[in-house]
Amino acid sequence: MKTKEKVLQYLTQHKGEVISGQEMADNLALSRTSIWKAIRSLQTEGFKVESITNKGYRLATDPDQLSKAILLPMLNEQPDVLEVYPTIGSTNDAAKALINERPIIHKGILVAEEQTKGRGRLGRQFYSPNQTGLYMSLIYQNKQAANAAALTTAAAVAVCRAIEKLTNKQPVIKWVNDLFLDGRKICGILTEGILNLETGTIDSVIVGIGLNVRHAEMVPEAFQSIIGSLFGKEETTVTRNQLAAEIINQLDVLYEALDQTDYLDEYRKRCFVLGQKVYFNEKKQNMSGIAETIDDEGGLVVKLDNGQIKTLRYGEISIKLGEKG
Amino acid sequence: MDFAQIKELLALVDQSTLREFHLQMDHVVVQMSKNSHEMRKDEAEPLTAERKAPLPESTQSAKASNTFSNEEIKGLVPTSNPEGEAEGEYVRSPIVGVAYLSPSPDEPAFKKVGDQVAVGETLCIIEAMKVMNEIKSEVSGTITEVFVTDEQVVEYHQPLFRIS
Predict the structure, then answer these.
(1) If we measure between CA atoms, which residue out of B119, B122, B123, B126 comes closest to residue B145?
(2) How many Å apart are CA A161 and CA A54, to the nearest integer?
(3) Which of A17, A149, A191, B139 is an S-S bond match for B129, by CB 3.0 to 4.6 Å?
(4) Residues A83 and A28 in one domain
(5) Cβ of B11 under 8 Å from any chain A Cβ?
(6) Does residue A90 sit in the same domain as residue A182?
Protein backbone atom coordinates (compact mmCIF):
# COMPACT_ATOMS: atom_id res chain seq x y z
CA MET A 1 0.00 0.00 0.00
CA LYS A 2 1.18 3.52 -0.76
CA THR A 3 2.07 5.89 2.09
CA LYS A 4 -0.97 7.99 1.31
CA GLU A 5 -3.24 4.96 1.57
CA LYS A 6 -1.67 3.88 4.85
CA VAL A 7 -2.26 7.33 6.31
CA LEU A 8 -5.85 7.39 5.07
CA GLN A 9 -6.50 3.96 6.52
CA TYR A 10 -5.05 5.01 9.89
CA LEU A 11 -7.19 8.14 9.99
CA THR A 12 -10.29 6.16 9.03
CA GLN A 13 -9.63 3.63 11.76
CA HIS A 14 -9.42 6.53 14.23
CA LYS A 15 -12.28 8.48 12.73
CA GLY A 16 -13.21 11.60 14.72
CA GLU A 17 -10.02 11.52 16.82
CA VAL A 18 -7.24 14.07 16.56
CA ILE A 19 -4.06 12.19 15.70
CA SER A 20 -0.65 13.80 15.92
CA GLY A 21 1.78 13.54 13.06
CA GLN A 22 4.27 11.94 15.46
CA GLU A 23 1.81 9.22 16.52
CA MET A 24 1.12 8.29 12.92
CA ALA A 25 4.83 8.39 12.05
CA ASP A 26 5.60 6.02 14.92
CA ASN A 27 2.77 3.61 14.25
CA LEU A 28 3.24 3.47 10.51
CA ALA A 29 7.05 3.50 10.65
CA LEU A 30 7.21 6.58 8.41
CA SER A 31 8.90 9.95 8.74
CA ARG A 32 6.87 12.97 9.81
CA THR A 33 7.69 14.57 6.46
CA SER A 34 6.12 11.63 4.62
CA ILE A 35 3.03 11.91 6.81
CA TRP A 36 2.77 15.62 6.10
CA LYS A 37 3.13 15.05 2.35
CA ALA A 38 0.52 12.31 2.41
CA ILE A 39 -1.96 14.53 4.25
CA ARG A 40 -1.43 17.33 1.75
CA SER A 41 -1.96 14.95 -1.11
CA LEU A 42 -5.16 13.54 0.42
CA GLN A 43 -6.52 17.04 0.99
CA THR A 44 -5.81 17.92 -2.64
CA GLU A 45 -7.74 14.86 -3.72
CA GLY A 46 -10.72 16.09 -1.76
CA PHE A 47 -10.51 13.99 1.40
CA LYS A 48 -11.75 16.13 4.28
CA VAL A 49 -8.74 15.78 6.57
CA GLU A 50 -8.64 18.67 9.03
CA SER A 51 -5.28 20.04 10.16
CA ILE A 52 -5.47 21.23 13.76
CA THR A 53 -2.53 23.45 14.67
CA ASN A 54 -0.16 21.96 17.23
CA LYS A 55 -2.41 18.93 17.67
CA GLY A 56 -2.51 16.94 14.51
CA TYR A 57 -5.04 15.72 11.99
CA ARG A 58 -8.60 14.50 12.06
CA LEU A 59 -10.94 12.81 9.66
CA ALA A 60 -14.41 13.76 10.84
CA THR A 61 -16.57 11.54 8.63
CA ASP A 62 -16.21 8.44 6.49
CA PRO A 63 -14.91 9.58 3.12
CA ASP A 64 -17.19 9.13 0.14
CA GLN A 65 -14.25 9.25 -2.29
CA LEU A 66 -13.43 5.78 -3.48
CA SER A 67 -10.24 4.52 -1.97
CA LYS A 68 -8.41 1.24 -1.85
CA ALA A 69 -7.34 1.90 1.73
CA ILE A 70 -10.92 2.29 2.88
CA LEU A 71 -12.48 -0.40 0.69
CA LEU A 72 -10.08 -3.19 1.46
CA PRO A 73 -10.77 -3.51 5.22
CA MET A 74 -14.52 -3.57 4.50
CA LEU A 75 -14.32 -6.59 2.20
CA ASN A 76 -15.08 -9.99 3.68
CA GLU A 77 -12.86 -11.71 1.18
CA GLN A 78 -9.58 -10.34 -0.10
CA PRO A 79 -9.42 -10.10 -3.90
CA ASP A 80 -6.35 -10.91 -6.02
CA VAL A 81 -6.59 -7.47 -7.55
CA LEU A 82 -8.20 -4.25 -6.33
CA GLU A 83 -7.70 -1.07 -8.30
CA VAL A 84 -9.32 2.31 -7.82
CA TYR A 85 -9.09 4.77 -10.70
CA PRO A 86 -9.90 8.50 -10.57
CA THR A 87 -11.01 8.23 -14.19
CA ILE A 88 -11.01 5.47 -16.77
CA GLY A 89 -12.54 4.64 -20.16
CA SER A 90 -14.58 1.72 -18.95
CA THR A 91 -13.94 -0.59 -16.00
CA ASN A 92 -15.11 -3.58 -18.08
CA ASP A 93 -12.55 -2.77 -20.78
CA ALA A 94 -9.84 -2.41 -18.12
CA ALA A 95 -10.92 -5.77 -16.67
CA LYS A 96 -10.60 -7.41 -20.10
CA ALA A 97 -7.12 -5.96 -20.55
CA LEU A 98 -6.18 -7.25 -17.10
CA ILE A 99 -7.40 -10.77 -17.90
CA ASN A 100 -5.30 -10.67 -21.07
CA GLU A 101 -2.23 -10.03 -18.95
CA ARG A 102 -3.13 -12.32 -16.08
CA PRO A 103 -5.46 -15.06 -17.30
CA ILE A 104 -6.09 -16.57 -13.89
CA ILE A 105 -7.72 -14.18 -11.51
CA HIS A 106 -9.99 -15.77 -8.94
CA LYS A 107 -11.43 -12.46 -8.05
CA GLY A 108 -10.60 -8.96 -9.18
CA ILE A 109 -12.21 -5.61 -8.44
CA LEU A 110 -11.81 -2.46 -10.52
CA VAL A 111 -13.56 0.69 -9.33
CA ALA A 112 -13.64 4.15 -10.87
CA GLU A 113 -14.81 7.62 -9.86
CA GLU A 114 -15.66 8.38 -13.47
CA GLN A 115 -15.92 6.56 -16.79
CA THR A 116 -15.35 8.42 -20.01
CA LYS A 117 -16.51 5.51 -22.17
CA GLY A 118 -18.99 3.82 -19.86
CA ARG A 119 -21.15 1.50 -21.92
CA GLY A 120 -24.13 -0.77 -21.69
CA ARG A 121 -25.65 -3.37 -23.97
CA LEU A 122 -24.69 -3.12 -27.64
CA GLY A 123 -22.28 -0.29 -27.12
CA ARG A 124 -24.89 2.08 -25.73
CA GLN A 125 -23.53 4.88 -23.60
CA PHE A 126 -23.72 4.52 -19.82
CA TYR A 127 -23.41 8.06 -18.56
CA SER A 128 -20.84 7.87 -15.77
CA PRO A 129 -20.14 11.34 -14.37
CA ASN A 130 -17.40 12.02 -11.85
CA GLN A 131 -18.01 11.26 -8.16
CA THR A 132 -21.78 10.90 -8.25
CA GLY A 133 -21.84 7.23 -9.15
CA LEU A 134 -20.21 3.93 -8.51
CA TYR A 135 -18.69 2.25 -11.52
CA MET A 136 -17.06 -1.07 -10.96
CA SER A 137 -16.21 -4.34 -12.60
CA LEU A 138 -15.88 -7.56 -10.68
CA ILE A 139 -13.91 -10.37 -12.23
CA TYR A 140 -14.92 -13.85 -11.15
CA GLN A 141 -13.50 -17.12 -12.25
CA ASN A 142 -16.24 -19.06 -14.00
CA LYS A 143 -16.66 -22.19 -11.94
CA GLN A 144 -19.30 -23.93 -14.02
CA ALA A 145 -20.60 -23.47 -17.52
CA ALA A 146 -23.96 -22.20 -16.29
CA ASN A 147 -22.42 -19.66 -13.94
CA ALA A 148 -22.14 -16.72 -16.28
CA ALA A 149 -25.90 -16.40 -16.73
CA ALA A 150 -26.62 -17.12 -13.07
CA LEU A 151 -24.06 -14.56 -11.97
CA THR A 152 -25.63 -11.78 -14.00
CA THR A 153 -29.03 -12.46 -12.41
CA ALA A 154 -27.49 -12.81 -8.96
CA ALA A 155 -25.71 -9.47 -9.42
CA ALA A 156 -29.06 -7.68 -9.60
CA VAL A 157 -30.11 -9.34 -6.34
CA ALA A 158 -26.77 -8.47 -4.70
CA VAL A 159 -27.10 -4.77 -5.54
CA CYS A 160 -30.69 -4.73 -4.20
CA ARG A 161 -29.62 -6.44 -0.98
CA ALA A 162 -26.72 -4.03 -0.48
CA ILE A 163 -28.95 -0.98 -1.03
CA GLU A 164 -31.59 -2.32 1.36
CA LYS A 165 -29.01 -3.06 4.02
CA LEU A 166 -27.49 0.43 3.92
CA THR A 167 -30.51 2.58 3.09
CA ASN A 168 -34.29 2.63 3.40
CA LYS A 169 -34.69 2.40 -0.40
CA GLN A 170 -36.24 -0.55 -2.17
CA PRO A 171 -35.15 -0.80 -5.77
CA VAL A 172 -36.91 -3.15 -8.18
CA ILE A 173 -35.51 -5.23 -11.03
CA LYS A 174 -36.37 -5.02 -14.70
CA TRP A 175 -35.44 -8.25 -16.44
CA VAL A 176 -32.56 -8.98 -17.01
CA ASN A 177 -30.80 -6.78 -14.52
CA ASP A 178 -31.60 -3.09 -14.63
CA LEU A 179 -32.51 -1.59 -11.28
CA PHE A 180 -35.25 0.98 -10.98
CA LEU A 181 -36.24 3.32 -8.18
CA ASP A 182 -39.35 5.50 -8.37
CA GLY A 183 -39.78 4.66 -12.05
CA ARG A 184 -36.26 5.62 -13.06
CA LYS A 185 -33.24 3.54 -13.87
CA ILE A 186 -30.55 3.84 -11.22
CA CYS A 187 -28.33 0.89 -12.04
CA GLY A 188 -27.24 -1.11 -15.04
CA ILE A 189 -25.27 -4.33 -15.04
CA LEU A 190 -23.33 -5.53 -18.06
CA THR A 191 -21.79 -8.95 -17.84
CA GLU A 192 -19.15 -10.16 -20.25
CA GLY A 193 -17.90 -13.69 -20.60
CA ILE A 194 -14.27 -14.27 -21.46
CA LEU A 195 -13.87 -17.29 -23.69
CA ASN A 196 -10.86 -19.48 -23.61
CA LEU A 197 -9.85 -20.02 -27.23
CA GLU A 198 -8.27 -23.38 -26.49
CA THR A 199 -11.25 -24.97 -24.81
CA GLY A 200 -14.12 -22.86 -26.12
CA THR A 201 -15.47 -22.41 -22.60
CA ILE A 202 -16.08 -19.27 -20.57
CA ASP A 203 -13.14 -18.95 -18.18
CA SER A 204 -13.90 -15.71 -16.43
CA VAL A 205 -16.90 -13.50 -16.07
CA ILE A 206 -16.75 -9.73 -15.78
CA VAL A 207 -19.71 -8.21 -13.99
CA GLY A 208 -19.81 -4.49 -14.71
CA ILE A 209 -22.03 -2.52 -12.34
CA GLY A 210 -22.92 1.12 -12.80
CA LEU A 211 -24.93 2.66 -9.97
CA ASN A 212 -26.05 6.28 -9.96
CA VAL A 213 -25.66 7.24 -6.32
CA ARG A 214 -26.37 10.96 -6.22
CA HIS A 215 -28.01 13.49 -8.45
CA ALA A 216 -25.70 14.46 -11.30
CA GLU A 217 -25.74 17.82 -13.02
CA MET A 218 -25.37 18.06 -16.78
CA VAL A 219 -27.12 14.79 -17.57
CA PRO A 220 -27.40 14.50 -21.38
CA GLU A 221 -30.89 15.42 -22.50
CA ALA A 222 -31.64 12.00 -23.94
CA PHE A 223 -31.25 10.46 -20.47
CA GLN A 224 -32.92 13.14 -18.35
CA SER A 225 -36.35 11.55 -18.18
CA ILE A 226 -35.01 8.01 -17.86
CA ILE A 227 -32.24 7.97 -15.31
CA GLY A 228 -32.46 8.64 -11.63
CA SER A 229 -30.15 8.06 -8.70
CA LEU A 230 -30.24 6.26 -5.39
CA PHE A 231 -30.26 9.34 -3.18
CA GLY A 232 -31.05 12.16 -5.60
CA LYS A 233 -30.35 15.45 -3.84
CA GLU A 234 -30.96 13.92 -0.41
CA GLU A 235 -28.18 14.28 2.21
CA THR A 236 -26.76 10.97 3.33
CA THR A 237 -23.96 9.56 5.44
CA VAL A 238 -23.80 6.40 3.32
CA THR A 239 -20.59 6.49 1.32
CA ARG A 240 -19.81 5.00 -2.06
CA ASN A 241 -17.04 3.00 -0.40
CA GLN A 242 -19.66 1.37 1.82
CA LEU A 243 -21.96 0.72 -1.12
CA ALA A 244 -19.14 -0.81 -3.17
CA ALA A 245 -17.99 -3.05 -0.33
CA GLU A 246 -21.53 -4.18 0.51
CA ILE A 247 -22.36 -5.01 -3.12
CA ILE A 248 -19.13 -7.01 -3.45
CA ASN A 249 -19.73 -8.84 -0.15
CA GLN A 250 -23.31 -9.66 -1.12
CA LEU A 251 -22.33 -10.93 -4.57
CA ASP A 252 -19.51 -13.04 -3.08
CA VAL A 253 -22.08 -14.83 -0.92
CA LEU A 254 -24.33 -15.50 -3.93
CA TYR A 255 -21.39 -16.55 -6.10
CA GLU A 256 -20.51 -19.32 -3.67
CA ALA A 257 -23.99 -20.80 -3.94
CA LEU A 258 -24.91 -20.19 -7.58
CA ASP A 259 -25.93 -23.80 -8.10
CA GLN A 260 -28.73 -23.30 -5.62
CA THR A 261 -31.48 -21.29 -7.16
CA ASP A 262 -32.78 -19.73 -3.92
CA TYR A 263 -31.73 -16.27 -5.00
CA LEU A 264 -34.13 -16.56 -7.92
CA ASP A 265 -37.11 -16.46 -5.53
CA GLU A 266 -35.77 -13.17 -4.28
CA TYR A 267 -35.24 -12.06 -7.87
CA ARG A 268 -38.86 -12.92 -8.74
CA LYS A 269 -40.18 -10.93 -5.79
CA ARG A 270 -38.21 -7.88 -6.82
CA CYS A 271 -38.87 -8.22 -10.54
CA PHE A 272 -41.51 -5.61 -11.29
CA VAL A 273 -42.21 -6.70 -14.85
CA LEU A 274 -44.02 -9.89 -13.80
CA GLY A 275 -47.72 -9.57 -14.59
CA GLN A 276 -47.01 -6.64 -16.88
CA LYS A 277 -47.23 -6.31 -20.61
CA VAL A 278 -43.77 -6.50 -22.14
CA TYR A 279 -42.53 -5.69 -25.63
CA PHE A 280 -39.55 -7.25 -27.33
CA ASN A 281 -38.02 -7.90 -30.70
CA GLU A 282 -37.42 -11.23 -32.20
CA LYS A 283 -35.76 -11.60 -35.56
CA LYS A 284 -36.48 -7.89 -35.98
CA GLN A 285 -40.21 -8.49 -35.43
CA ASN A 286 -42.07 -6.58 -32.71
CA MET A 287 -43.72 -8.92 -30.25
CA SER A 288 -45.56 -8.49 -26.98
CA GLY A 289 -47.16 -10.47 -24.22
CA ILE A 290 -47.63 -10.75 -20.49
CA ALA A 291 -44.55 -11.58 -18.41
CA GLU A 292 -45.60 -14.58 -16.33
CA THR A 293 -42.60 -15.74 -14.37
CA ILE A 294 -38.84 -16.24 -14.27
CA ASP A 295 -37.73 -19.82 -14.82
CA ASP A 296 -34.90 -21.48 -12.92
CA GLU A 297 -32.28 -20.33 -15.42
CA GLY A 298 -33.39 -16.73 -15.16
CA GLY A 299 -35.33 -16.81 -18.45
CA LEU A 300 -38.44 -14.66 -18.69
CA VAL A 301 -41.58 -16.67 -19.44
CA VAL A 302 -43.97 -14.61 -21.53
CA LYS A 303 -47.51 -15.45 -22.60
CA LEU A 304 -47.75 -13.98 -26.06
CA ASP A 305 -50.81 -12.16 -27.31
CA ASN A 306 -51.74 -15.24 -29.34
CA GLY A 307 -51.69 -17.41 -26.22
CA GLN A 308 -48.37 -19.09 -26.94
CA ILE A 309 -45.81 -19.38 -24.17
CA LYS A 310 -42.31 -18.16 -24.92
CA THR A 311 -39.25 -18.09 -22.71
CA LEU A 312 -36.83 -15.26 -23.38
CA ARG A 313 -33.15 -15.99 -22.79
CA TYR A 314 -31.52 -13.18 -24.70
CA GLY A 315 -32.26 -9.73 -25.93
CA GLU A 316 -34.15 -7.24 -23.84
CA ILE A 317 -37.69 -6.18 -23.13
CA SER A 318 -39.35 -2.87 -22.80
CA ILE A 319 -42.39 -1.96 -20.78
CA LYS A 320 -44.67 1.01 -20.70
CA LEU A 321 -44.60 2.30 -17.16
CA GLY A 322 -48.04 2.50 -15.60
CA GLU A 323 -49.60 0.13 -18.08
CA LYS A 324 -51.15 -3.02 -16.70
CA GLY A 325 -51.47 -6.20 -18.69
CA MET B 1 -54.08 -37.98 -22.78
CA ASP B 2 -55.89 -35.22 -24.62
CA PHE B 3 -54.73 -32.27 -26.67
CA ALA B 4 -54.91 -29.82 -23.75
CA GLN B 5 -52.62 -32.03 -21.69
CA ILE B 6 -50.14 -32.31 -24.52
CA LYS B 7 -50.22 -28.56 -24.88
CA GLU B 8 -49.54 -28.15 -21.18
CA LEU B 9 -46.72 -30.64 -21.33
CA LEU B 10 -45.22 -28.84 -24.29
CA ALA B 11 -45.24 -25.55 -22.39
CA LEU B 12 -43.58 -27.15 -19.36
CA VAL B 13 -40.87 -28.75 -21.45
CA ASP B 14 -40.40 -25.50 -23.33
CA GLN B 15 -39.72 -23.64 -20.08
CA SER B 16 -37.43 -26.28 -18.69
CA THR B 17 -33.77 -26.87 -19.50
CA LEU B 18 -34.58 -30.25 -21.00
CA ARG B 19 -33.29 -30.66 -24.50
CA GLU B 20 -35.28 -33.80 -25.16
CA PHE B 21 -38.34 -35.44 -23.66
CA HIS B 22 -39.83 -38.89 -24.27
CA LEU B 23 -43.04 -40.16 -22.75
CA GLN B 24 -44.76 -43.47 -23.29
CA MET B 25 -48.07 -44.21 -21.58
CA ASP B 26 -51.32 -45.97 -22.43
CA HIS B 27 -51.42 -45.83 -26.19
CA VAL B 28 -49.56 -42.59 -26.56
CA VAL B 29 -45.93 -41.89 -27.31
CA VAL B 30 -44.75 -38.29 -27.01
CA GLN B 31 -41.34 -37.18 -28.16
CA MET B 32 -40.11 -33.62 -27.90
CA SER B 33 -36.74 -32.28 -28.83
CA LYS B 34 -35.26 -28.83 -28.80
CA ASN B 35 -32.19 -30.07 -30.62
CA SER B 36 -32.26 -28.96 -34.18
CA HIS B 37 -31.42 -31.64 -36.68
CA GLU B 38 -28.51 -29.54 -37.88
CA MET B 39 -26.87 -29.53 -34.46
CA ARG B 40 -27.08 -33.25 -33.88
CA LYS B 41 -25.49 -33.90 -37.20
CA ASP B 42 -22.66 -31.54 -36.36
CA GLU B 43 -22.08 -33.16 -33.01
CA ALA B 44 -22.07 -36.66 -34.34
CA GLU B 45 -19.91 -36.15 -37.33
CA PRO B 46 -16.53 -35.06 -36.04
CA LEU B 47 -16.08 -38.45 -34.38
CA THR B 48 -16.95 -40.29 -37.55
CA ALA B 49 -14.65 -38.09 -39.52
CA GLU B 50 -11.78 -38.81 -37.20
CA ARG B 51 -12.21 -42.53 -37.61
CA LYS B 52 -12.73 -42.37 -41.33
CA ALA B 53 -9.56 -40.64 -42.31
CA PRO B 54 -6.63 -39.16 -40.46
CA LEU B 55 -6.90 -35.40 -40.48
CA PRO B 56 -4.15 -33.12 -41.66
CA GLU B 57 -1.82 -31.79 -38.98
CA SER B 58 -3.28 -28.29 -38.87
CA THR B 59 -6.76 -29.64 -38.30
CA GLN B 60 -5.83 -31.91 -35.47
CA SER B 61 -4.33 -29.11 -33.46
CA ALA B 62 -7.59 -27.20 -33.65
CA LYS B 63 -9.74 -30.07 -32.44
CA ALA B 64 -10.20 -28.99 -28.85
CA SER B 65 -11.26 -25.50 -29.78
CA ASN B 66 -14.24 -23.75 -31.21
CA THR B 67 -12.90 -23.94 -34.71
CA PHE B 68 -13.29 -27.01 -36.83
CA SER B 69 -12.11 -27.91 -40.25
CA ASN B 70 -14.12 -28.63 -43.33
CA GLU B 71 -13.66 -32.34 -42.89
CA GLU B 72 -15.30 -32.31 -39.54
CA ILE B 73 -18.32 -30.55 -40.92
CA LYS B 74 -18.67 -32.56 -44.04
CA GLY B 75 -18.05 -35.64 -41.96
CA LEU B 76 -18.89 -38.81 -43.74
CA VAL B 77 -18.22 -37.59 -47.23
CA PRO B 78 -14.65 -38.52 -48.05
CA THR B 79 -13.09 -35.66 -49.91
CA SER B 80 -10.98 -36.06 -52.97
CA ASN B 81 -8.87 -33.02 -52.13
CA PRO B 82 -8.13 -33.00 -48.41
CA GLU B 83 -5.38 -30.36 -48.67
CA GLY B 84 -7.71 -27.85 -50.27
CA GLU B 85 -10.51 -28.50 -47.78
CA ALA B 86 -8.23 -28.15 -44.78
CA GLU B 87 -7.64 -24.48 -45.57
CA GLY B 88 -10.98 -23.50 -44.18
CA GLU B 89 -11.39 -23.26 -40.41
CA TYR B 90 -14.91 -23.04 -39.04
CA VAL B 91 -15.60 -20.81 -36.08
CA ARG B 92 -18.53 -22.20 -34.14
CA SER B 93 -20.70 -20.80 -31.42
CA PRO B 94 -19.70 -22.08 -27.98
CA ILE B 95 -23.15 -21.28 -26.56
CA VAL B 96 -26.81 -20.83 -27.45
CA GLY B 97 -27.62 -17.18 -27.86
CA VAL B 98 -28.13 -14.31 -30.21
CA ALA B 99 -25.31 -13.23 -32.51
CA TYR B 100 -24.29 -9.61 -33.01
CA LEU B 101 -21.98 -8.91 -35.90
CA SER B 102 -21.09 -5.36 -34.89
CA PRO B 103 -20.18 -3.78 -31.52
CA SER B 104 -23.28 -1.57 -31.70
CA PRO B 105 -26.11 -1.17 -34.23
CA ASP B 106 -24.61 2.08 -35.57
CA GLU B 107 -21.17 0.64 -36.13
CA PRO B 108 -19.85 -1.44 -39.02
CA ALA B 109 -19.51 -5.20 -38.63
CA PHE B 110 -16.49 -6.54 -36.75
CA LYS B 111 -15.59 -8.60 -39.84
CA LYS B 112 -17.11 -9.23 -43.24
CA VAL B 113 -16.28 -11.56 -46.12
CA GLY B 114 -12.86 -10.72 -47.55
CA ASP B 115 -11.52 -9.12 -44.34
CA GLN B 116 -8.22 -10.21 -42.87
CA VAL B 117 -8.34 -11.65 -39.36
CA ALA B 118 -5.50 -11.95 -36.86
CA VAL B 119 -5.43 -14.37 -33.95
CA GLY B 120 -7.38 -12.96 -31.02
CA GLU B 121 -9.44 -10.51 -33.05
CA THR B 122 -13.12 -10.24 -32.21
CA LEU B 123 -15.42 -11.72 -34.84
CA CYS B 124 -18.81 -11.26 -33.21
CA ILE B 125 -20.62 -11.20 -29.88
CA ILE B 126 -22.99 -13.93 -28.72
CA GLU B 127 -25.41 -12.85 -26.04
CA ALA B 128 -27.29 -15.09 -23.64
CA MET B 129 -29.00 -13.78 -20.51
CA LYS B 130 -27.37 -10.39 -20.96
CA VAL B 131 -23.95 -11.98 -20.82
CA MET B 132 -21.99 -10.71 -23.78
CA ASN B 133 -19.43 -13.17 -25.08
CA GLU B 134 -16.89 -11.91 -27.57
CA ILE B 135 -16.00 -14.60 -30.05
CA LYS B 136 -12.37 -14.27 -30.99
CA SER B 137 -10.52 -15.89 -33.83
CA GLU B 138 -8.08 -18.60 -33.01
CA VAL B 139 -6.56 -18.49 -36.45
CA SER B 140 -5.36 -15.83 -38.81
CA GLY B 141 -6.55 -15.64 -42.40
CA THR B 142 -9.31 -14.24 -44.54
CA ILE B 143 -13.02 -14.46 -43.81
CA THR B 144 -14.43 -16.53 -46.64
CA GLU B 145 -17.93 -17.00 -45.32
CA VAL B 146 -20.27 -15.53 -42.70
CA PHE B 147 -23.01 -18.02 -41.89
CA VAL B 148 -25.15 -15.89 -39.62
CA THR B 149 -26.97 -12.60 -39.91
CA ASP B 150 -27.05 -9.88 -37.29
CA GLU B 151 -29.31 -10.73 -34.31
CA GLN B 152 -29.73 -14.30 -35.47
CA VAL B 153 -30.33 -16.90 -32.78
CA VAL B 154 -27.57 -19.50 -32.89
CA GLU B 155 -27.40 -22.99 -31.50
CA TYR B 156 -24.51 -24.55 -29.66
CA HIS B 157 -21.78 -25.48 -32.16
CA GLN B 158 -23.46 -23.76 -35.08
CA PRO B 159 -20.90 -22.49 -37.62
CA LEU B 160 -20.51 -18.72 -37.55
CA PHE B 161 -17.60 -17.99 -39.85
CA ARG B 162 -15.22 -19.71 -42.19
CA ILE B 163 -11.67 -18.46 -42.24
CA SER B 164 -9.22 -19.57 -44.92
Answers:
(1) B123
(2) 45
(3) A149
(4) no
(5) yes
(6) yes
- Tell whether A144 lies on the interface with B, counting CB pairs under 8 A: no
Residue A247 lies in a domain: yes
Delineate the domains of chain B, giving CATH numbers in brackets: 3-76 (no CATH), 89-163 (2.40.50.100)
Count of structural domains, chain A = 3
Same domain, A123 and A72: yes
Tell whether A122 and A74 lie within a shared domain.
yes
Q: Within 10 A of A179 (CB to CB), how many other CB atoms are there? A: 24
pLDDT tens sequence across A110-142: 999 999 999 988 888 899 999 899 999 999 988
Q: Do A177 and B130 touch (CB under 8 A)?
A: yes
**Residue-averaged pLDDT of chain A:** 91
Sorting pLDDT into bands at 50, 70 and 90, what band is B17? low
Shortest distance between the Cα of A87 and any Cα of chain B, in A, equals 23
State whether A204 and A146 are in the same domain.
Answer: yes
Q: Record the pTM.
A: 0.78
pLDDT digits (tens, 9 = 90+) for B37-84: 444 434 433 333 333 344 444 434 433 344 444 444 443 334 344 444
A94 contacts A117 by C-beta, under 8 angstroms: no
Residue A324 lies in a domain: no
In 3D, which of A200, A32, A106, A306 has the Cα closest to residue B90?
A200
Yes or no, beta carbons of A123 and B16 under 8 Å apart: no
Boundaries of domain holding A302: 277-319
Q: In this structure, how many other beta carbons lie within 10 angstroms of the beta carbon of residue A53?
A: 5
